[in-house]
Design a protein that fits this description.
This protein is α/β, with parallel strands linked by helices and 365 residues long. The chain is 38% helix and 16% strand.
Length: 365
């Protein structure tokens, strides 16, 4: 089976051993080293490491001091962590529809969704390509909204040379399947020194120094062991991204022109880091998306559906007064069509050929 993702952290061994031999395995100098490297990648002054990407989102909303009833606008087409984090932070969530060309939130839909209680705009840079921040940022400024980027899947992505995570508070995931992983972990990026300071205090039980409490905080710390796993990957992020881009190019060329298969596009001015290579199986395809997925698995080609429904379309959210559902026809349609194919850096030329040939055969090309 060609897997949808492969985790390779072999280069981390000397860093992990360094931590083990030091005796400092909780948050310490290795975390600081990781933060400094991550801040450079994001083009910001500060990076604050935490224990998950979800935590990064929660903490970012918490330091903005929202009041009960304040709302966050975000995408309906995302992993559930986006929604859960907003609710955990005590805010209400409203959704703006997406665009098919990049799977990201539509600035026109955001403009229509802004209301008197809107305080935060949370675009999701899905699959590794950034949302249209050139239009979203003026909207945020016009309405006085804070910007929290859910950049969980977009480490290293850029728009007109400006990196994901550099527009407001950037939130990244370091989960095992991400382009950069520490197994579990997250990072918040910002050039706002005051917010960075509050985030560092918040993640450490509200302590500035031992037993010097300044706020009700949490244990959101990342360990030096986790940071040690991530550092060598950050050092070779350019190579990781280039490999994903090469693989995406091969898939794009090999799958072009197949009936009922809409390929992902890289929009002008943007770099795509290809966390996922996500196609759409449309009504013109000879088989359904589910049949397509099953036939690929039969051929030993791993794939995944990210995500099968819009994020609020589950029973556990239907009666939640803080989840303000809306009509999102584009996201609803896209959720019924998407399927992600292997694009990870460990793919061989033979495996890429197998993927392309297998898909063409399944679709009768």
């Amino acid at each position: 089976m060609i897997p949808i993702t492969v985790v390779d952290v072999a280069d981390a061994e000397p860093y992990v051993l360094e931590v083990l031999r030091s005796g400092v395995i909780a948050q310490g100098p290795m975390v600081k080293r990781f933060e400094d490297a991550f801040a450079e990648v994001a083009g910001v002054e500060h990076a604050v490491a935490v224990n998950s990407g979800t935590t990064a989102l929660v903490a970012s909303i918490e330091v903005l001091d929202l009041q009960p009833g304040d709302e966050v606008i975000t995408s309906p087409f995302t992993f559930v962590a986006t929604l859960n984090a907003i609710l955990e932070a005590g805010a209400s969530v409203r959704f703006a529809d997406i665009r098919t060309e990049d799977f990201n939130i539509d600035p026109d839909a955001v403009a229509a969704a802004v209301g008197p209680r809107t305080k935060v705009l949370m675009p999701v840079h899905l699959y590794g390509q950034m949302a249209d921040m050139t239009k979203l940022m003026p909207l945020a400024e016009q309405h006085g909204l804070a910007v929290v980027e859910d950049a969980a899947q977009a480490v290293g992505a850029t728009l007109d040379g400006k990196a994901a995570g550099s527009y407001g508070l950037g939130c990244f995931s370091l989960y095992a399947t991400k382009n950069i992983t520490t197994a579990e972990g997250g990072v918040i990026t910002t050039s706002d020194a005051a917010l960075a300071d509050r985030l560092r205090v918040l993640r450490n039980q509200g302590m500035r120094a031992r037993y010097q409490y300044e706020m009700a905080g949490h244990n959101y710390r990342l360990t030096d062991l986790h940071a040690a796993v991530g550092i060598p990957q950050l050092e070779k992020l350019a190579q990781i991204t280039e490999a994903r881009q090469r693989n995406a190019e091969v898939l794009g060329k090999g799958l072009a022109g197949l009936p009922g298969l809409e390929l992902p596009a890289v929009l002008p001015g943007r770099t795509h880091v290809w966390h996922q290579y996500t196609v759409r199986v449309t009504e013109d395809a000879p088989i359904t998306r589910e049949e397509f997925s099953a036939k690929l698995l039969e051929k030993g080609i791993g794939n995944g559906i990210y995500y099968p429904k819009v994020v609020f379309d589950y029973d556990c959210y239907r009666d939640n007064p803080k989840v303000i559902a809306s009509d999102v026809p584009v996201a609803t349609q896209v959720a019924s069509q998407v399927l992600s194919l292997p694009v990870h850096p460990k793919l061989t030329e033979t495996e890429l050929e197998t993927i392309v040939d297998g898909i063409r055969e399944v679709l009768g090309a």
